[in-house]
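Q: I have 191 residues here and want to know how they pack in 3D. Can you give me a structure?
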Amino acid sequence: DVLGYRDKEISEFIYKALNDIPGISAVKPKAAFYIFPKIDIKKFNITNDEKFANIAKEIENKMDEVIDGFELLDHDMGFMWMLSWGANYMINADEKSKLRLLKVSSYLAGRFNPKGKFIRAWSWAKGQMIIDCMMNLALLYWATDETQDPRFAHIAHAHLETTLKYSIRPDSSVNHVLEFDPQTGEFLYSL
């Protein structure tokens, strides 16, 4: 099984939460954390976007349990919540979704190691960043645009610079994992 212990715990939680909603189903992932829920359009008699939006809001509320379980969070915060809460805020001006996104933005910013200038991937690996962290920078840039607080963009840019410096190989492929000394920020190795 390629999922780590913490990933298994998060994956199991989300899998169960989704499948606990009548008319929503998901297949348990075996090799990745990604879960793609299926919505039974007949059960919900979905014939327009409003009904679909209501189902999306129910799923969004379930995701609060993950964000409030702080220790379950990792580097994926941006793309996990920009697609749900972000869409709800941008399409419907939902203030609760905006506050959720700002909370997640602050959590993601809190993963930043100022000595090494990188966003930490996992809570248990204090000195590791992975290329996947790049998928979450849009959340930080959004937070700067929304709040006019430049620190989010500064963190995103610093992480980008670190990624360019250490992750890109001479053949233009990338290293997936980069290890830094979490105390000094010194780059140690890449995989």
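Q: Anything worth noting?
A: The beta strands are 24-25, 38-39, 112-113, 118-119, 128-130, 177-180, 187-190. The mean pLDDT is 85.
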